[in-house]
Design a protein that fits this description.
- The chain has 539 residues and is mostly helical.
- It has a two-stranded antiparallel ribbon.
- β1 and β2 form a beta hairpin.
- The chain is globular and about 65 Å long.
- The relative contact order is 0.12.
């Protein structure tokens, strides 16, 4: 099996599990949107969940893997499996201690702050929910570490399957929520408890796989281990470098709660003796949450899957100083990423309203909620291709042990996002928060691409540019076909049958895919042809 085939085989495993997870994630969001809508209660949950979820995304989709995998790979290549496994136990022990400390400090802060300071009702609920869900950080970071070990050993299934378990637990919590209380404030605690329990279950399902790989945990307290020092020295910069988009999303949610009018309260606040109207209505954080969930679908199914699969290859080529294959792997991954990212951005922009109508619009999620969510998705979707590309691009830097450059550029982009947030919310409301995130991601990927070509031993080959042009041309054909078919269906008022809602989404989606595929074939897109052949080929 060639490297290209191995790469796509790994991507296929990860993507299949991620696709199942995202489908279940949409089901859970459908249930939650129906029960809680876009009000203060879900605003509070969205912010409370984003705090431990930030750790999940950083560790599960980036920082820990980015710091650990190159060093673990080096141990396997140069010192043998026995020493590499001993190194795993050293890192695991210290990680457990650190995570325990983080959870202890976080729980203390969430308990103490509302008792020391006077906080609004919406923030009180945020703190209460955070107390329940924050221990999730401990479990999910251990899951991420176990996943990094297994990914390095080229086992991708269980780490990719773990989020499926999380969604199943969450769905059970949401289904049971109406039986736990009569008010939304009481029902939301069932979802919070389910989130906490999902982390524990994800840890346990990894044990059988680890035993089959002859990986057994034995506590080893060895702070002097040079590999350990390297892992944690690199994790700091890596965390920030990979976290830019996620930090921006968290900042968006905090600003959304802080600058939105309280439900049933006054529509203005006082600053410097002036009464200033809130730029956003209650529910802004909820709208951002539901929008981000839809954007995460293509990002998780392909973007993060590709980055996860390609990172061990990057690391192996870097350890062997095989820069020719490193460059080839990078260019191949970049072409595949843009082949998916560009049409995904355009498709979601075009089909955002039918998607929302099918998935979310029922009961508590009314016409206003649908309209606000549609506006936010429009701005988030502009940057899908950039969100996908960043995951591969940043890992290219980290695999050659350059952790500083992504940090510097990331810091600039976080600052840019914050300034844009506080500027655009007065014009575009919560849509301004989404547009700020998209702009900062696009700026980040442009700058990093330029630096990559200048500083690292990588060149963006001419074939990448040709591939992008073919992808853009096929995407234009896709847009035309999708728009034409979509216009055949009347605008929905939310009252249509599930069959009509599904037909209104999948008919233009099918036309869009057909137009893209035909155009790509006519243009002889190598990446599209390769993608189809490998997709049809048996594992």
């Amino acid at each position: 099996m060639s490297e290209s085939q191995k790469l796509f085989h790994s991507v296929r495993i990860i993507s299949a599990c991620t696709f199942l997870s995202r489908i279940l994630g949409l089901v859970r969001d459908m249930i939650c949107a129906s029960i809680f809508g876009t009000g203060m209660v879900w605003d509070a949950f969205a912010v409370a969940f984003k705090i431990p979820n930030l750790f999940r995304r950083l560790f599960g989709e980036g920082a820990l893997s980015a710091a650990f995998i190159p060093i673990f790979t080096e141990h396997i290549e140069k010192r043998g499996k026995a020493e590499a496994m001993a190194f795993v136990n050293v890192v695991a022990t210290i990680l457990i201690i650190i995570l325990g400390g983080i959870v202890f400090l976080g729980e203390g802060a969430f308990f103490a702050v509302p008792r020391i300071f006077q906080v609004q009702e919406k923030w009180q609920l945020v703190f209460k929910l955070s107390i329940i869900m924050f221990p999730y950080v401990f479990f999910i970071c251990l899951v991420a570490f176990m996943g990094a070990v297994l990914n390095t050993l080229h086992h991708f299934f269980m780490p990719a399957f773990a989020p499926v378990v999380m969604n199943i637990c969450w769905i059970l919590g949401a289904v049971l929520a109406p039986y736990t209380g009569k008010t939304l404030e009481k029902m939301i605690y069932a979802v919070a408890v389910a989130t906490f329990l999902s982390g524990l279950v994800q840890v346990f399902i990894h044990f059988p796989v680890l035993r089959r790989k002859e990986l057994y945990y034995r506590p080893v307290l060895k702070f002097s281990d040079p590999g350990l020092k390297l892992v944690f020295a690199r994790m700091g910069p890596v965390v920030f470098g990979l976290a830019v988009v996620q930090i921006n999303v968290l900042i968006d949610s905090i600003i959304a709660v802080g600058f939105s009018a309280p439900q049933g309260g006054p529509g203005y606040f006082h600053f410097a003796g002036m009464a200033i109207h809130y730029p956003m209505k209650a529910g802004a954080a909820s709208v951002l949450y539901y929008s981000d969930r839809l954007i995460q679908f293509p990002l998780g199914v392909f973007g993060i899957a590709m980055a996860t699969a390609v990172f061990p290859l990057f690391s192996t080529h870097a350890v062997r100083e095989d820069w020719s294959n490193f460059s080839t792997t990078f260019n191949r991954a970049l072409k595949f990423m843009l082949l998916i990212g560009i049409p995904a951005s355009l498709a979601i922009i075009l089909l955002r309203e039918p998607i929302i109508d099918l998935i979310y619009r029922r009961r508590q999620f009314d016409a206003e909620s649908a309209y606000r969510t549609s506006r936010v998705i429009l701005f988030y979707a502009i940057g899908i291709w950039a969100y996908c590309g960043l995951h591969v691009l940043i890992r290219a830097f980290y695999s050659v042990k350059d952790t500083i450059t992504p940090v510097k550029i990331g810091a600039i982009c976080v600052g840019l996002d914050f300034v844009l947030n506080l500027s655009l919310i007065w014009i575009l409301q919560e849509g301004g928060l989404a547009l700020s995130t998209a702009i900062s991601a696009i700026v980040q990927i442009i700058i990093l691409t330029i630096i990559l070509q200048k500083k690292l031993r990588i060149k963006i080959k001419r074939e990448v540019v040709v591939s992008i042009l073919k992808t853009v041309t096929a995407s234009v054909a896709m847009v035309i076909a999708c728009w034409f078919v979509l216009k055949m269906f009347p605008a929905s008022d939310g009252s249509g049958s599930l069959y009509f809602k599904g037909l209104r989404l999948f008919a233009p989606m099918t036309a869009a895919f057909a137009a893209f595929a035909v155009t790509a074939i006519v243009l002889k897109s190598e990446e599209f042809g390769h993608l189809i052949r490998l997709s049809l080929k048996k594992s």
